[in-house]
Design a protein that fits this description.
By secondary structure, the chain is mostly helical. It has two helices and no strands.
Length: 67
């Protein structure tokens, strides 16, 4: 019985926590993505560079969103 209750409580906490974390990370990435796309378009570089740079920023932004 207790294990079932523990799973229920963990799910009640984890779902909103991860949803909020993903929303915060996406908002931070969106702001940086606009700047990166502007820079790459002005310099004439490929758009794949922006996606790689954003991929490298995801761990940093997840670290900011956790607290």
């Amino acid at each position: 019985m207790l294990a079932r209750f523990d799973r229920y409580m963990a799910r009640l906490i984890a779902v909103p926590l991860f949803a909020t974390l993903m929303i915060a990370a996406m908002l931070l990435l969106l702001e940086k993505m606009l700047k990166l796309f502007d820079f790459v378009v002005n310099e004439g570089g490929p758009a794949s560079v922006v996606w790689r740079m954003l991929g490298n920023l995801i761990p940093q932004y997840l670290g900011l969103g956790i607290p």
